[in-house]
């Protein structure tokens, strides 16, 4: 009996011994947010996680939306095409939670939360690990770059373009510098405020990148860098019609990055891995890719529109090699996302920023600044590369500023088609949407300005956030 | 609260129904009683005989038994009396013409007592000794048996008022010295006490009757505390082993179907997604929207893993761990329902607690028991979902085809080399169903010596379902040991394990949806993979033939593997040490372990094992999951009785941890079908998962009882749970209850009412069963977060640090009544459970980075009434008929929601003021007689031809108005018949099941249709059940609407068992103690008031699969 009592005492002691942290339980593969960010390993792997979440919203319709809402593509309303049919026909509706309207909003804010978590815990870690200052600052710069990108994408999708009102005082999107709680009900800021924040984040990111460099473990152009920050600044200023600044940053970028050559042009899209002129690309490694299926050569959901086909006046244009005939029909499909040698489980790399765009930004800025010859020369650079001829042999028959701008616009369409830009290029320039009469859409023409040029705020957001204001017309 | 309950119109309606049942039973009871009264008339002619002798004569001749006290009746007085054919009362009046005596005739028992019994009480005992010595003591021998004529060992036999007694030996025999005017009192736990006057008898055979609910039963309640039923304050219902012995053996939750008031056992879905439907047990309604609604199951003190919050087990097919326990090992099941009982389980008690106690050994000689059961089962024809035969199908399909102005020459199902549609008629039920079989064999041994007792058992159960390809096998063993090391120290060890093999095959909808005109086989007998149809026409106008894939489930069944093996183990060690009299310490260590292994292979011979392009691939998957729960409990118990004060106390501290580990592997690309293991697949991937949850609790319970009249109980519990945010990790719960035994009061005297008890309790408990880290925000690692080849992590849920317990406040009021010589027992309980801070997975502003978060918002109320009426309608020596009627009513109401915004939840809608199971549907208005198009009602009740989701209204609920059961027990000599029927009144069920097959032509090309489609619109003026059939055209008639809503009212003949216990002479010759043969029928029939011949109604749409009827034969022998 004595033995038993000893045993008893032992057991009692044992069970009390473990009391203090008995209830602290963590799951393998899952940890609570504060625990996760309590060390360097956590925040380091949060960076790929954040990029991954950005890839997710690009992949879930954001990258497609500016194409189907634009005029360069004819949609096949089967398979993957179904998901964006409403945007193609301009019948978006706040209740479309499970497609483009809800997806971009939800997934972009999800990415933003991932990014803001990094920025929230970074200062604490900086105090805790002073030796890792450089590394932590690089992490911060990455997060700031991504935060700017997400805000920029959201404001382009859910708000009218920057110059819609003279002072950009119209409704933008919520500006989030930290993740709000369930009860916080953050409303929309003006477009001006959103752009201010984007610029501030990009400048700060650029400064840090310039001081601290980029992480050598990261494969460029799959991660943010000073060039990426500058390139994005060039584009943001272009949207703001701040031509000087757009030009400055484009020039700075072009000092660092060269255009891909004529000979390597097709391979830039066809082979996996980064190309010469890539500035920022979202990596599709081991991603489930909607874009890949959307532009698949087997069951394509989109063809080049008659309008786009008509833009290619030179049959020797290398870019035509990326448009392929579908067997037994006139339809052309894009090969920009066709990588025959790539492993099945990889998704498409999504080019976000590349040098060609910078040249075209430069052209547009020059043209608007009245420097028409310089602008034409910029266009010639692109055209010469496309045709594989010296720039000097190119003649551009445009005289007025208007004509030059039109040439630039067409060149931009030819160069950047299917790369997630076209629709925004129309609206920021206050142009009407004009599709070719052969379009398969129910909508052929929409005059600028239009309520239809923004997507509605999703209904679930409206229901759960009483400070949210719906876009006009929805 | 009672007032509000009663004032409700709905409640009144229920009361009326209940009252009707009660009335019905009363009438039958009274008749029975009267019958007995008039039975024996007395004729007697004696002179100069003692009253004692007169009594003896009457006892012998007229089968009466006299009960009296020698203080009241001078039995030595000599009398002369002559009467002819008088009733017993007038006889007694002439025999004992005393004004002080009253006669109470109950059945064949005559109680003679003094009218002033209280005042003489004291003198009784003092005089007793003197008087009784006047009679010579003689030895009385006897045998005590239970209802099945099994000898009962250990029965207390005492002489009334004499404090002297004995117990029966192992053969149920007893010997006691007594005088003829003594009365022997026989008492045994679980049986009704019986008093028998000795009279002239020297040998007596006594049969004790089981007393399930209503007597001096000792109940094993929370944490093993034992309480006399009479002292019980809480709402507790116990089902004993005898009540469940002839019920189906497949799973233990099914045992409780219909036999516990307020408990509902129902399948979780009406569809065919799994041949092993998940079942829900709900006690007193659904108290939660997002956390679990399942009760807490506890086996011998250790909580049982029953799957996740909706009983999901992590496998592709969830096989309930409740099927891994052998029902034959169960001694009793106790269901705890109110706060006074469940608060002791704190944060897991909100949905009620079910305590399972396994059989223990009894001290004495080893006793073996062998049981076997063999049964056949078949699908109940009238619950089959009726579909068209080949000819009917072709007729309807062609009509639908031509209705859309198509040329019949291009009708797809035109005979060709591959298919002769015109004369094929496959009844797919025949393909997928066959006669089922159940077999069971169990063997147990129990016994013990002075210091220890044991029960060991082994069992095998096998069920071949009527749905071919489904089989359940259970091999189980159990060993329960109890050892007294010293008078003060005791160890109780119970170990149970089972190995379970489940073959799983689900045909999905194929058994009713497959076209009757396509045979599952090709002409050469191989499995069909293609069928040939016309699909349009060629440019030259000839029909264009097309071969389509035929996804043959029959081939899947024959060629694929889907097998689950489960090893389940429950172990419990209880160490008791009584260090002071009445004060003990107990240490309890418990383990619940479950290892499940699922092995699936999709054969490349059929479509399931081919890729999209039809290449032969073969897919294999292997999942292994281990679940382990352990707990340690330290208990200090006090058990003291001082004079009239009885105190029971309990102080406890408990630690509990659960963890789940899961490893899975998938593979595709096999060489051939012979190699079916993931390891040989060309492409392989795998995953793993681990979850852990911890809980720490302090609790205490104090029960006080005064003089058996006043009883009170107080419970407190403090629970900490790892699943909640740090700020709110701890929860406190408390409850208070009281009961008043009015019949023990001096002022209470009634000739009819034997017992009357009032009880009330109020208290709180919680529900913590949500996922494990919901409160803190979760970062997850994994492929989904990787980027550019680097491992990544991402936010999987956003934090809500204030997420906390749901708290349920329970109020319970009860009345227990026993009347007419305890022949009528009535328990009525009313309750109101209000769950506050409801955990809901709510939509949240996307700016948080998440779509939904768990929040404590809203409140829900369940209130209801439960009536249990138990009557012994007839009782004499050879024949006993008793009836138990149960009726439960529950009303569920959402009191508040997030911003009170209604939330749609599939077909249902959560709206403040409504039932949380209320439907939200467009109302179907039938068929337009003009053109056969569908009609609906709009929001305002006007008929419209337009289907619009804006016209949805909150309409009906799946909560029934009243449900329960009626059980009749008849025993005649050695025969025993038990008939259990369950019923449900009101409540609606939506059948997604019947939707696709009532498609009015839309799906007719691919799915067979319900016979209801034959009654369709044909020409203007037709008042038809179904709209005009239009091939491939949607008139939206098949969209969700009240068209597919069925009233659930039904009555079901659930279980009938006829048992025969061999006569003792025969069993003794065979060397057995007992031999019982039983014939059992399960699910013998179901009736609904809406049945129409050749139409489908609710009973055909119940649960995705037709009901299974089974007939089995059982044998039970002990020696």
UniProtKB/TrEMBL annotation, chain A:
RagB/SusD domain location: 343-474
Residue ranges of domain SusD-like N-terminal in the record: 48-238
The keyword Signal is assigned to this record: yes
Classification via InterPro entries: SusD-like_N, SusD_RagB_dom, TPR-like_helical_dom_sf
Gene Ontology CC annotations of this record: cell outer membrane
Signal sequence coordinates: 1-20
Record-linked Gene3D superfamilies: 1.25.40.390, 1.25.40.900, 2.20.20.130
Location in the cell: Cell outer membrane
Keywords, comma-separated and alphabetical: Cell outer membrane, Membrane, Signal
Family: Belongs to the SusD family.
Name of the protein in its database record: RagB/SusD family nutrient uptake outer membrane protein
Lineage of origin: Bacteria, Pseudomonadati, Bacteroidota, Flavobacteriia, Flavobacteriales
From TrEMBL, chain B:
UniProt-annotated location(s): Cell outer membrane
Principal subcellular localization: membrane
Membrane topology according to the record: Multi-pass membrane protein
One Pfam family per UniProt: CarbopepD_reg_2
UniProt entry keywords in alphabetical sequence: Cell outer membrane, Membrane, Transmembrane, Transmembrane beta strand, Transport
Any one annotated GO CC term: cell outer membrane
TonB-dependent receptor plug domain ranges (all copies): 231-353
UniProt record similarity statement: Belongs to the TonB-dependent receptor family.
Protein name per UniProt: TonB-linked SusC/RagA family outer membrane protein
Species name: Mesonia hippocampi
């Amino acid at each position: 009996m004595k033995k038993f009592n000893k045993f008893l005492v032992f057991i009692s002691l044992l069970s009390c011994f473990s009391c203090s942290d008995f209830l602290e339980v963590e799951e393998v593969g899952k940890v609570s947010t504060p625990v996760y960010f309590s060390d360097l390993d956590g925040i380091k792997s949060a960076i790929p996680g954040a990029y991954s979440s950005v890839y997710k919203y690009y992949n879930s319709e954001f990258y497609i939306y500016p194409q189907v809402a634009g005029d360069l593509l004819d949609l096949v309303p089967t398979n993957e095409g179904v998901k964006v049919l409403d945007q193609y026909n301009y019948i978006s509706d706040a209740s479309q939670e499970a497609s483009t309207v809800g997806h971009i909003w939800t997934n972009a804010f999800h990415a933003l939360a991932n990014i803001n978590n990094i920025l929230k815990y970074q200062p604490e870690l900086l105090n805790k690990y002073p030796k890792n200052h450089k590394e932590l600052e690089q992490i911060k710069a990455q997060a700031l770059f991504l935060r700017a990108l997400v805000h920029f994408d959201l404001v382009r999708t859910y708000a009218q373009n920057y110059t819609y009102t003279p002072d950009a005082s119209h409704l933008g999107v919520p500006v989030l510098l930290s993740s709000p709680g369930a009860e916080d009900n953050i409303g929309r800021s003006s477009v001006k405020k959103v752009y201010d924040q984007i610029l501030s984040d990009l400048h700060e990111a650029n400064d840090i990148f310039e001081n601290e460099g980029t992480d050598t473990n990261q494969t460029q152009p799959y991660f943010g860098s000073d060039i990426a920050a500058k390139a994005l600044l060039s584009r943001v200023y272009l949207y703001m019609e701040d031509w000087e600044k757009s030009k400055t940053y484009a020039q700075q970028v072009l000092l660092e990055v060269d255009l891909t050559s004529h000979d390597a042009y097709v391979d830039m899209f066809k082979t996996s891995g980064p190309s010469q002129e890539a500035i920022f690309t979202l990596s599709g490694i081991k991603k489930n890719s909607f874009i890949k299926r959307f532009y698949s050569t087997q069951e394509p959901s989109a063809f080049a529109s008659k309008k786009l086909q008509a833009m290619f006046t030179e049959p020797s244009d290398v870019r035509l090699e990326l448009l392929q005939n579908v067997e037994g029909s006139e339809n052309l499909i894009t090969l920009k996302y066709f990588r025959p040698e790539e492993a099945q489980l990889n998704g498409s790399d999504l080019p976000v920023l590349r040098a060609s765009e910078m040249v075209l930004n430069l052209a547009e800025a020059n043209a608007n600044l009245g420097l028409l010859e310089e602008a034409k020369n910029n266009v010639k650079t692109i055209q010469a590369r496309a045709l594989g001829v010296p720039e000097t042999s190119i003649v551009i028959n445009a005289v007025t500023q208007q004509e030059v701008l039109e040439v630039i616009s067409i060149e931009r369409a030819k160069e950047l088609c299917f790369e997630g830009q076209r629709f925004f290029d129309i609206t920021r320039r206050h142009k009407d949407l004009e599709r070719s009469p052969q379009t398969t859409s129910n909508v052929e023409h929409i005059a600028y300005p239009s309520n239809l040029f923004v997507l509605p705020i999703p209904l679930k957001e409206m229901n759960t956030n009483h400070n949210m204001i719906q876009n006009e017309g929805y | 609260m009672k007032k509000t309950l009663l004032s409700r119109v709905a409640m009144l309606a229920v009361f009326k129904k209940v009252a009707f049942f009660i009335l019905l039973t009363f009438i039958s009871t009274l008749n029975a009683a009267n019958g007995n009264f008039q039975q024996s008339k007395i004729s007697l002619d004696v002179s100069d005989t003692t009253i004692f002798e007169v009594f003896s004569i009457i006892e012998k001749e007229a089968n009466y038994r006299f009960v009296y006290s020698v203080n009241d009746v001078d039995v030595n007085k000599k009398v002369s009396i002559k009467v002819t054919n008088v009733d017993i009362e007038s006889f007694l009046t002439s025999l004992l013409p005393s004004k002080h005596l009253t006669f109470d005739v109950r059945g064949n028992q005559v109680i003679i007592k003094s009218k002033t019994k209280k005042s003489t009480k004291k003198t009784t005992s003092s005089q007793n000794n003197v008087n009784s010595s006047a009679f010579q003591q003689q030895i009385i021998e006897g045998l005590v048996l239970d209802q099945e004529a099994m000898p009962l060992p250990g029965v207390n036999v005492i002489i009334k008022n004499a404090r002297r007694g004995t117990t029966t030996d192992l053969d149920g025999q007893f010997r006691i010295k007594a005088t003829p005017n003594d009365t022997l009192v026989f008492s045994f736990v679980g049986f009704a006490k019986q008093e028998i006057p000795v009279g002239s008898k020297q040998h007596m055979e006594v049969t004790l009757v089981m007393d399930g609910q209503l007597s001096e039963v000792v109940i094993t309640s929370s944490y093993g505390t034992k309480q006399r039923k009479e002292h019980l304050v809480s709402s507790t219902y116990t089902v004993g082993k005898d009540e469940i012995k002839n019920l189906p053996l497949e799973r233990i939750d099914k045992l409780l179907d219909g036999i516990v008031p307020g408990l509902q056992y129902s399948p979780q879905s009406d569809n065919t997604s799994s041949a092993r439907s998940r079942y829900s047990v709900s006690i007193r309604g659904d108290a939660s929207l997002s956390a679990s609604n399942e009760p807490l199951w506890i086996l011998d003190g250790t909580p049982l893993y029953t799957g996740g919050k909706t009983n999901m087990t992590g496998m592709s097919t969830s096989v309930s761990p409740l099927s891994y326990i052998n029902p034959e090992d169960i001694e009793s099941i106790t269901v705890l329902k109110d706060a006074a009982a469940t608060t002791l389980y704190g944060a897991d008690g909100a949905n009620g607690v079910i305590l399972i106690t396994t059989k223990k050994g009894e001290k004495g000689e080893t006793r073996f028991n062998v049981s076997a059961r063999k049964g056949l089962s078949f699908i109940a024809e009238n619950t089959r979902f009726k579909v068209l035969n080949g000819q009917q199908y072709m007729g309807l399909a062609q009509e639908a085809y031509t209705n859309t102005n198509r040329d019949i020459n291009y009708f797809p199902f035109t005979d060709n080399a591959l298919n002769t549609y015109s004369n094929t008629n496959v009844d797919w039920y025949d393909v997928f169903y066959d006669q089922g079989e159940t077999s069971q064999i169990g063997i147990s041994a129990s016994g013990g010596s002075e210091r220890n007792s044991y029960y060991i058992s082994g069992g095998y159960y096998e069920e071949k379902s009527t749905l071919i390809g489904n089989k359940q096998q259970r091999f189980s063993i159990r060993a329960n040991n109890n050892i007294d090391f010293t008078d003060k120290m005791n160890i109780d060890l119970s170990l149970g394990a089972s190995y379970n093999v489940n073959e799983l095959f689900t045909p999905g909808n194929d058994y009713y949806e497959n076209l009757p005109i396509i045979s599952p086989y090709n002409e050469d007998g191989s499995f069909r993979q293609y069928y040939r149809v016309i699909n349009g026409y060629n440019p030259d106008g000839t029909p264009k033939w097309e071969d389509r894939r035929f996804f043959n489930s029959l081939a899947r069944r024959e060629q694929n593997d889907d097998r689950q093996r489960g090893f389940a183990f429950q172990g419990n060690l209880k160490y008791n040490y009584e260090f002071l009299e009445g004060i003990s310490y107990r240490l309890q260590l418990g383990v619940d372990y479950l290892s499940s292994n699922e092995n699936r292979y999709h054969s490349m011979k059929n479509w399931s094992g081919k890729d999209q392009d039809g290449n032969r691939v073969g897919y294999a998957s292997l999942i292994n999951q281990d679940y382990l729960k352990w707990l340690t409990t330290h208990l200090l118990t006090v058990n003291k009785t001082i004079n009239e004060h009885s105190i029971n106390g309990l102080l406890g501290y408990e630690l509990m941890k659960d963890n789940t580990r899961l490893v899975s592997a998938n593979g595709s690309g096999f060489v051939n079908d012979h190699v079916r293991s993931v390891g040989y697949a060309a492409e392989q991937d795998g995953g793993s998962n681990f979850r852990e949850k911890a809980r720490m609790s302090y609790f205490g319970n104090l029960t006080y009882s005064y003089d058996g009249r006043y009883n009170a109980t107080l419970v407190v519990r403090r629970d900490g749970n790892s699943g909640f945010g740090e700020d709110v990790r701890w929860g406190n719960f408390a409850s208070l209850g009281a009961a008043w035994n009015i019949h023990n009061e001096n002022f209470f005297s009634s000739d009819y009412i034997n017992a009357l008890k009032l009880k009330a309790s109020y208290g709180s408990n919680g529900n913590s069963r949500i996922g494990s880290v919901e409160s803190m925000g979760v970062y997850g690692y994994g492929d989904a977060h990787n980027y550019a080849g680097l491992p990544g992590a991402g936010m999987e849920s956003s934090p809500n640090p204030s997420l906390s317990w749901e708290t349920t406040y329970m109020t319970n009021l009860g009345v227990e009544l026993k009347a007419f010589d305890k022949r009528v027992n009535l328990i009525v309980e009313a309750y109101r459970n209000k769950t506050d801070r409801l955990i809901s997975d709510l939509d949240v502003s996307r700016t948080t980075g998440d779509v939904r978060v768990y929040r404590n918002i809203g409140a829900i109320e369940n209130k209801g009434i439960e009536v249990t009426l138990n009557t012994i309608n007839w009782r004499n020596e050879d024949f006993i008929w008793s009836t138990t009627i149960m009726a439960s009513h529950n009303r569920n109401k959402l009191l508040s929601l997030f911003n009170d915004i209604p939330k749609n939840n599939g077909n249902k809608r959560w709206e403040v003021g409504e039932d949380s199971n209320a439907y939200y549907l467009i109302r179907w208005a039938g068929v337009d007689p003009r053109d056969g198009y569908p009609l609906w009602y709009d929001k305002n009740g006007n008929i419209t031809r337009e289907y619009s989701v804006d016209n949805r209204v909150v309409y009906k609920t799946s909560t029934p108005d009243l449900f329960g059961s009626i059980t009749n027990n008849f025993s005649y000599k050695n025969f025993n018949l038990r008939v259990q029927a369950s019923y449900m009144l009101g409540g609606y069920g939506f059948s997604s099941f019947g939707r696709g097959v009532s498609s009015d032509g839309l799906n007719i090309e691919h799915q067979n249709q319900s016979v209801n489609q034959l009654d369709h619109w044909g020409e203007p003026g037709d008042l038809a059940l179904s709209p005009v059939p239009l091939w491939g055209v949607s008139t939206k008639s098949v969209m969700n609407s009240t068209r597919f809503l069925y009233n659930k009212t039904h009555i079901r003949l659930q279980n009938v068992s006829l048992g025969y216990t061999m006569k003792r002479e025969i069993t003794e010759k065979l060397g057995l103690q007992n031999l019982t043969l039983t014939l059992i029928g399960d699910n013998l029939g179901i009736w609904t008031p809406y049945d129409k011949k050749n139409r489908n109604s609710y009973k055909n749409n119940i649960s995705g699969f037709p009901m299974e009827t089974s007939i089995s034969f059982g044998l039970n022998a002990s020696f």
